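[step 3/7] inverse_fold.run input=structure_tokens len=335
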């Protein structure tokens, strides 16, 4: 496709309503004119495959062209996934029961598939003596549809069984009890380490790691109001402030007051080793973002993502010099 044709295709896919909302917000935040912001967003869309959310999160309006080329935009992220991950094998990660079965060695928790075959007796037996359970739709992302239930919710087992059946195909899992140090950051959510592994053209290993931290909700996901901070791959310490999707930054957790910069993730080396071993299990999926819980007994998988979100690795607050994470990806593959 010609360059002109490519640019026209990108323009045709733009969501001008969302672009206008983003331009209004950034105009108020930066004082830059809307005309300039629109033009720069359009340029970034055509030249760097950046959506309006990329532009906002990575604060591309602050960057020069050389810096913009280091941002992992939506388009670049999608290209990496298409090249690295055979879609015929995504089901090992996208279906939560398949993931738990395939990676059971590192999941190590009780769970129950809830579908058309579920009986009330099976549900009742599973819930026996459990202090709480997590409901997860079989497929989905960004924490959508996830709920936490306690014994009070299934006191009337007949009603709870009907509710679970009505909620659609899912799994129920026993709650992961996180390490006390992780709970000190935010006790309402299991704060997971997202560790991305790659079997690349140049080398294989860990591309990046970020700690995702909740902010009062059950989920630590940034789409649910959580924040993230970059983890040093050598020491397991947090290198940066916590940052959320709205552009807020935190040196201390706003609820617990725990320091974020310098916080050391327990069992981080063990978590990395676990991910490096697991990445060989389904080698047709060569780029995976693993969500790892840290318990008192070591790391445990929550899930693996065959189509990793590119939002967290591009938050501007994680790159104060304006150089994004693409140079790290280029250590692994030609892009």
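[step 3/7] decode complete -> sequence:
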């Amino acid at each position: 496709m010609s360059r002109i044709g490519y640019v026209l295709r990108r323009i045709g896919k733009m969501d001008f309503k969302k672009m206008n909302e983003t331009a209004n917000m950034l105009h108020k935040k930066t004082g830059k004119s809307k005309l300039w912001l629109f033009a720069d967003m359009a340029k970034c869309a055509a030249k760097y495959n950046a959506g309006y959310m990329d532009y906002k999160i990575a604060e591309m309006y602050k960057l020069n062209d050389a810096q913009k080329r280091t941002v992992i935009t939506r388009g670049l992220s999608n290209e990496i996934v298409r090249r690295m991950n055979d879609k015929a094998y995504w089901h090992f990660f996208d279906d939560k029961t398949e993931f738990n079965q395939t990676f059971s060695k590192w999941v190590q928790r009780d769970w129950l598939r809830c579908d058309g075959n579920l009986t009330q007796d099976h549900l009742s037996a599973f819930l026996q003596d459990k202090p709480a359970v997590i409901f997860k739709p079989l497929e989905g992302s960004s924490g959508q549809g996830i709920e936490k239930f306690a014994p009070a919710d299934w006191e009337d087992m007949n009603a709870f069984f009907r509710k679970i059946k009505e909620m659609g195909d899912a799994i129920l899992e026993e709650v992961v009890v996180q390490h006390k140090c992780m709970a000190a950051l935010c006790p309402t959510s299991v704060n997971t380490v997202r560790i991305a592994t790659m079997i690349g053209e140049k080398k294989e290993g860990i591309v990046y790691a970020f700690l995702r931290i909740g902010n009062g909700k059950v989920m630590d996901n940034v789409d649910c109001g959580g924040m993230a901070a970059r983890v040093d791959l050598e020491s397991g310490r947090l290198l940066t402030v916590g940052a959320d999707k709205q552009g807020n930054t935190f040196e201390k957790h706003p609820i617990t007051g725990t320091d974020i910069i310098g916080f050391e993730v327990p069992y981080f080396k063990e978590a990395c080793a676990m991910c490096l071993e697991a990445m060989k299990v389904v080698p047709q999926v060569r780029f995976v973002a693993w969500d790892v819980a840290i318990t008192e007994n070591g790391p445990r998988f929550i899930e693996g993502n065959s189509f990793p979100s590119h939002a967290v690795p591009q938050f501007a607050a994680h790159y104060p010099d304006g150089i994004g994470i693409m140079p790290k990806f280029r250590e692994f593959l030609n892009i």
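[step 4/7] annotate
The mean pLDDT is 91.
The radius of gyration is 21 Å.
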